[in-house]
Structure formats: C-alpha cells, structure tokens
Fold this protein.
Amino acid sequence: MLGVLHVRKTLSALHNQELERETLRGLLAEPYFVPTGTPVFQQLQYFQESRHRTALVVNEYGELQGLVTPEDIIEELIGEFTTSIPRGANTRGGWNDAGECIVAGSMPLRELNRWLQLQLPTDGPKTLNGLILEILEEIPEGDVCVQIGGVKLEVMRSDDQAIRTVKIFKPRAKGATKLTKALSG
C-alpha cells in the first residue's frame, strides 16, 4: 500500500497538469491502518481529532481486511441513513423472483442481514465465508448446502482459500441450525 489517492485532489491536478506517475505519487496521502479489534467509539474519536476520513482495517497479521469510514461506523450504530428514498417494507432487496440471492462469500454479515432482512448470527465470524466455514469446519470441495438460523445457504464456488460465491434462499420459516450436504452423483 503506497497511499490513499483522493478523487478531489486527482481531479484538481488533472485540470492543472497532465497526470503522470510522479504527479500521482505526490498526491498520495499516508494510509491510516486500524486493527480489527479497535473499539468503535475510540475509532470515531480518532476520525474526529485527526480529520481522517478513511482507515484501512488490518488483522493481527497485518493483512488488509477492508476499509472503514466514519459514515460506516455511524450507520452501524444508528442504522442506515441516506439522502435517497428509504427502502420500504415492500422493497424486494436483492431477492430475485424465485426468492434467491447470489452474494460474495466475503460479504459482511451485518450488511447482509440489513440488506436482505436476515438474522444470521453476528456474534462470531464477520463474513458469510467465515460463518459457513465455522459450521463446516473445512473448505468444501463440492456443492454444499447449510441452514443457519432458518436461512438456507448453498456454496456455489470455493477455492483452496475461501468460499467465494453463495446462493441464499429467502427464509420461509424460522428454524434451528442444521447441516445438509448435497450429493452429486
């Protein structure tokens, strides 16, 4: 990670001169890294005091886990806010006509729960991949379905490192966690 390139600075530089590699390097801001376990209010206070608007989240090994902004934290605390028309109770969200939705395994559980009005557990792993791997205790080699908290999840694609794509079936009724392995024959 060399730095953070802000769009406004880049557009301003584009109007004043040609964008070359050295010009872009000069526009890079020092990246701010935050460990995954940093308390939310501490992070908000840091954003306020330092006037940083983005932080790169890293795990205990220094691997990049994502990006967080003050807006992300505020939405997590008080719920989504936006200037667009709010989603109503009748909004379909990401569901197709068959009541299915395909998502990336890396999708954060809290975001997924809000988006699809699900109640997947968020007290453990933070991503859909992590949640499914916690139940399966291994990366699946073939087609696998798992039901967690009444939500049926089908692993569509995985590799040696993680579950990449998952099909979610719209829950019909609440149920207990169970595991079913789809046999291909």
User: Anything to note?
Assistant: Confidence is low (pLDDT under 50) at residues 83-92, 174-185. The longest strand covers residues 151-158. Residues 40-50 form the longest helix (11 residues). The helical segments are 7-16, 21-27, 40-50, 70-78, 109-116, 128-136.
